[in-house]
Each structure stands twice: as structure tokens, then as C-alpha cells.
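Re: Re: C-alpha cell formats

Sure, here are both.
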Amino acid sequence: MKKAIDKARLNMNKNYGGPFGACIVDKDGEIVACASNTVLKDNDPTAHAEINVIREACKKLNTRDLSDYILYTTCYPCPMCLGAIIWANITEVFYGCKKEDAANIGFRDDYIYNFIADNCLDKKVLKLSEINRDECLKLFEEYSSNKKEIY
């Protein structure tokens, strides 16, 4: 966790992003990758510490499966990062601050949590509309019939 904090502080003070850092370690505790939030530096709203460290670790290890690794992060992951963590097959996460701590300094993760909890029905937040399902289903059927890899 100390490495994640150090990485977050360094990049936060460079105005690269918020006070968020993350490290991925193997089962022996060896650090594979450390990254921070670089939303401001990269002009990328998805450049959260957890996303950045997952990308770095996957590239370094030449895999998309991090099931044998542990993630340390300075704050409870936002919904996007939780999704990425689950997609990467990481099954253990240690976090420092709570999501309420992030809210207390102005980060709005709760906005997204509330939207999801309300079954994504708040049209003021995001309007979701289904279109061209039949055409899209053909694409899905083609993928399935060609026995493409599921990940």
C-alpha cells in the first residue's frame, strides 16, 4: 500500500490526477506494477489508478487474466474500476479510503452507484435506448457460431 500511496502523491503533486494510486502484486507479495490516476494528464476520464495498473500489469505479464494477483488501491474502487477488476479476474483487493472519503473531497462515485442502484432509470443521468437489436443479435450469433473465445 505504501508504494500505491507514494505513486498517488507523486502524480497528484504533478497535477496528473487525484489522490489515487494502485499496485498489483503476485501471491508472494512481489510488485508487478504500480500506477496512479492520470485523468488530468491524459485528458482521459477512464485513466483511474486501478485501470492504469491493470493495463500495465497485463502488458508486462502478456495476459488478460490476473486471477493469481492482488490489487492494492488507495481508495475503494469506483464502479468502472470494480468492473475492470472483475473482468481481470482479480479476486482480492485491499483499499485504503472508503468511497465516502472520496465523496467528502468532491469525487462523485456515489452518483454512479445511485444510478446503478436505481436500475439505470434516471434519464437525467443517462438516457439508455435500445435500437437495432435484431441486427446486433446477428453479430452475436456469428461470434458464438464461430466458437470465438469467451473472456
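Second one below.
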Amino acid sequence: MKYSIGEVAKSLNIPISTLRYYDKEGLFLNMKKDKSGNRIFTENHIETLKVIHCLKMSGLQIKDIKEFMYLASLGDESILKRKEIFLKQKENVLQKINELKEALELIEFKCWYYETASKEKSEEKVKNYPQEKMPKQIRNIYQKIHQI
């Protein structure tokens, strides 16, 4: 099937300007245009966009994505290099997930903290709250964030 830039933008929730930028940067192989000069997207371009989005979300910069797309254009001779890129990005994503989990724990603690302070009408009471009265999950987080 063939799609217009507007159809692709709408279905993937990507601004048209971003799609034009990707094309200008050479991220799409075999991008054809109609008689009016409008880009014609195919299923392969849609799959390419999904890979680009994945790589961007994992922290890869456009110049590095461009390099990945070049490697992809080489075919089988670049399989191992492309695999290495994804393995590295997997590690980056796992690290980000761990960082976000730590941030979420602190947020959960602070939500409990302020909810309890609101009920007690005193932040000072919560600062001196006995750990054994804290819910187990909150106590675990408290101990984790207060260790050096």
C-alpha cells in the first residue's frame, strides 16, 4: 500500500515536519514522490519509522540513526553491526528503566509523606514517624533512600 505524508503523520502521531526532516536527513531508502512532488510512503517506510522511533526513544541521536540506516542498506554484511547497536540500546533502556524505578520509589514515598502530613496536619509529625507504623512498601523505600 501507499500512503501520503498526512496519513502517515496521523496514524503514527508524528508531525509532518518531522517526517520531512527524516527524509531530508536520508533516513528513508527509496522515497519516491508523485507528479506533484509529494512523498509516497510504503509499508517499508512505516516499518522504518517504527525503528527510528524505537532508536530515538532509546537515546540514539539522528546522526547515529542515519548510520544505522546506512548499515541497513548494506544488507547482510552489516547484520552484526546492527545487532550491536540494538544490544547497546537495550542496555541504555534497561539503565533508564532502573533510574525511573528509583525516581518512582521516591515519588511514592513523597506521595505517602504528604498524604500523611496532610492527615496529621503537621509535617513535623511525619518527619518523626516511627518506621514500624509505616506501610511495609513505604518503610522499604524509606530505608533505601536514607542509607548512604
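The helical segments are 5-12, 16-24, 43-57, 62-73, 79-120, 123-127, 136-145. The first strand starts at residue 2 and ends at 3.
- S.
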